[in-house]
TrEMBL record:
SUPFAM superfamilies: PhoU-like (SSF109755). It comes from the Bacteria. This is DUF47 domain-containing protein. Belongs to the UPF0111 family. Coiled coil: none annotated. InterPro entries: PhoU-like_sf (IPR038078), Put_Phosphate_transp_reg (IPR018445), UPF0111_domain (IPR052912).
């Protein structure tokens, strides 16, 4: 690791860790959604909205710290990119839950459970990785595994689309369900954006 002669603002590490922990909370709410009946989904959506607002607060705190810090632990643009991508994950997860409730979806198609399981695993890995930004240790396996999970998510998404267009659903239902599975796919992409940013930071800091 490159030796530094200047002190660095360390609160960023804690804020990134908090943001990632909040994403784990969001992924658990997605898992809850799978087994919930229609009345219970509204309450889950309320908790997801609260988690998304907490994520917004965490992101704003990072931006505020970035704007007020003379010295940062790594490049400012990478801090901004990492914070924004973490925030995107929560936004997409919250949107997916909200759409399920707004569209009054009675039964999610087979394969959505696999999408959510991938997101839950990615959330755990991301939360485990964020504290390692302090030392840049043990991060290579993280971004490799996240990229593998994103590839897996792509395959699940393609199969879901084929299922939705199989003729089993009417046109309106296809539009509703496609929007939900597309948003879940965007969440998987956002996890990969986080991992790619972490890789960029690690390369610069090596």
């Amino acid at each position: 690791m490159r030796f530094r002669l200047t002190p660095r603002e360390t609160s960023f590490y804690d804020m990134f860790a908090a943001s990632a922990d909040n994403i784990v909370t969001g992924s658990k709410l997605l898992m809850e959604l799978l087994g919930a009946d229609t009345p219970a989904r509204g309450e889950i959506a309320e908790r997801m909205r609260a988690a998304e607002h907490a994520g917004d607060d965490a992101t704003h705190a990072i931006f505020h710290q970035l704007n007020s810090s003379f010295i940062t632990p790594f490049d400012r643009e990478d801090i901004y990119s990492l914070a924004s991508s973490l925030d995107d994950i929560m936004d997409f997860m919250e949107e997916a839950v909200d759409l399920v409730v707004l569209y009054n979806v009675e039964e999610l198609p087979k394969g959505v459970d696999q999408q959510i399981e991938v997101l839950a695993r990615a959330a755990e890995l991301t939360a485990e990785a964020m504290p390692n930004l302090r030392t840049m240790d043990n991060l290579t396996e993280y971004w490799i595994e996240i990229n593998r999970l994103e590839n897996q998510a792509d395959q699940i998404h393609r199969k879901l689309l084929a299922h939705l267009f199989s003729g089993k659903y009417d046109a309106i239902e296809v539009l509703k369900l496609k929007q939900i599975v597309d948003v879940l796919e965007e969440a998987a992409d956002a996890f990969e954006h986080v991992a790619n940013t972490v890789e960029t930071i690690a390369v610069k800091e090596s």
